[in-house]
Amino acid sequence: MPGDYAAPCWLLRQARQLLYPRRCPFCRRVLGFVPTCPECAERLEPLRRMPMRLKESEHYLGTLSGAAAPYRYTGCVRSAVLRAKYQGEPWTAVELGVEMARLLFGSEILMRGAEPTPQRVEGLSLGYDAIVPVPASSKKRGYNVPERMARPLAKAVGVPLAANALGRARTGRHQAGLSLDERLVNVAGAFRVLEPDNVDGKRVLLVDDVITTGATAAACAQALLDAGAQSVFAVALATVEFDALPSRSQPIAETAEEDEKEIEKT
């Protein structure tokens, strides 16, 4: 979002800290002016993915030029994403975006008051022209998690955030529990470009919270390419890891019920 890190917005967030102190996105401990949670470092390290780039043999990438995620979608990472999505914590989504900027792009994170702020990484803007978040599945939440994650990334990469460039042409079923074939059908034609000028001829960095099979990111990429984008590379905080690309007809062992149980524990 243009101006999101400008002085007026920053001052407003600092004032809000007096009532709602900054917390760790992974365990909810109050952090305040502490850059990262020392308690979560050991919990996060086993969840790291190296290399971070997703393999076509394990995920469906379609017309994406590639995709990457720094974490596996499990443990405290999964809990943080679920809180951001279902428990009204937009600040958690932003903090997770800061983590993405640090791990995916090597951005130095400096504290500006009580706010961790990614620093621009020189040279990254040579690879991308625009950052586009995957649109929310509904408007009930009041904010879009990938868009909040994309704000720190836009600052780190140094290119504009086209927050509303991509929208939903229709609402499909929830992807959880569907097979790969069902997921591909469910998202086929589900996205449309609302701001063609912001993607035409651009190298787009697509941002999502989680990549499971890759079907949603691939469908978004196809819509962007059809609207004239030059290329689309996708990033997410986390991904579901498979030993091989799932069978196209077998249901993916990930359900909405599991998510609800996880939320109840947080």
From TrEMBL:
Molecular function (Gene Ontology), one example: glycosyltransferase activity
Top-level division of the source organism's lineage: Bacteria
InterPro entries referenced in this protein's UniProt entry, alphabetically: ComF/GntX_DNA_util-trans, PRTase-like, PRTase_dom
Family listed: Belongs to the ComF/GntX family.
Residues annotated as domain Phosphoribosyltransferase: 164-241
UniProt keyword Transferase present: yes
Keywords: Glycosyltransferase, Transferase
Organism annotation: Faecalibacterium prausnitzii
Name of the featured protein: Amidophosphoribosyltransferase
Signal peptide start-end: none
